[in-house]
Design brief:
Length: 305
């Protein structure tokens, strides 16, 4: 295994005779960038390189829902929904999420709000265009969201999703738009049947009345190298030097050359070495050892419509 300090020294040798423009901190940044780029996938002959097996992870997330008699509605411009129990953040609500309200005594409060502005423990602030009818706490109000934040270390490849409570597999749609074709209002209530990713959120339909744990199988972000004895996370040991030293060298030399006189054969040499190392990595990893992504789409629409 190569350590950070060893990789730094090899990059410095590759930069000879001029190593003054980039210090150890810069080299470390490029080495970590290389690990991240490889983990996220690099195009090889127009095909994205496979995920790194060592970064495969399984984690649970809970659907976002809160229910109780402590929820009130305030007509305050912007209007707010308050919870004297202070449970909104713990339940998983966050700015930007849509929410659906049910169980309020005032019928106008039982609706869907498309984009909440801010969230604190005891207060959800709505967008200025949204309107509530003032209502004190007392009714059993349920607030649901059709999405939950993905794990903070999520990188790529949502390969499999299962519901813990249902004990069954959940369909994974290939895009958020396909989910919208089947559930355009994102307001269906019931067990989770389908999920799709949009940005940093996992969207689902239907929305359960109590938090439902979903088990996600995915590839995580690599851990950045910082200490001298840190090792590249997820990169096979026999390819670490070739991949990361050549990546850092091609990026640094290319940056210097473009600033001075344009791209030259020197930077292209390291680019070619890096691409050969990537080809060896792809051959070494081979086919993924997990089931392919479950991209079943029963929305009733063809792509592009």
């Amino acid at each position: 295994m190569a350590t950070l300090s060893e990789l730094q020294e090899k990059v410095k040798k590759a930069l000879l005779p001029d190593t003054t423009a980039f210090g150890t901190t810069d080299i470390t940044a490029y080495l970590n960038e290389g690990v991240n780029r490889i983990a996220a996938g690099i195009a090889i002959n127009d095909v994205l390189s496979p995920p790194l097996p060592e970064l495969f992870k399984i984690a649970d997330v809970d659907t976002v829902v809160i229910s109780g008699t402590t929820i009130a509605f305030v007509d305050s411009d912007p209007d707010t929904i308050t919870d004297s129990g202070g449970g909104f953040v713990t339940a998983g609500f966050a700015a930007g999420m849509p929410i659906t309200v049910s169980g309020a005594g005032e019928s106008g409060n039982n609706t869907t709000f498309r984009n909440i502005a801010t969230v604190a423990a005891g207060t959800i602030t709505l967008a200025s265009s949204d309107s509530l009818t003032a209502e004190t706490a007392g009714e059993t109000v349920t607030i649901r969201s059709p999405c939950v934040a993905l794990p903070s270390d999520y990188s790529r490849g949502l390969a499999y999703v299962a519901s813990v409570s249902q004990g069954s597999r959940i369909k994974v749609y290939s895009s958020y738009h396909k989910l919208l074709r089947k559930y355009p209002l994102l307001d269906q209530v019931g067990d989770v049947l389908i999920v799709a990713i949009k940005g940093v959120y996992l969207y689902y339909q239907s929305m359960p009345g109590t938090a439902e744990a979903l088990t996600l199988h995915y590839y995580r972000d690599p851990t950045a190298m910082s200490a001298d004895d840190s090792e590249p996370d997820g990169i096979p040991s026999h390819l670490q030097d070739r991949l990361l030293v050549n990546y850092a060298a091609k990026e640094i030399i290319g940056l210097v050359e473009e600033a001075v006189k344009g791209r030259t054969l020197r930077s292209e040499k390291y680019e070619e070495k890096f691409q050969r190392a990537m080809a060896d990595l792809v051959a070494f990893i081979g086919p993924e050892d997990i089931e392919p992504i479950y991209y079943d789409d029963d929305s009733g629409y063809e792509d592009g419509y």
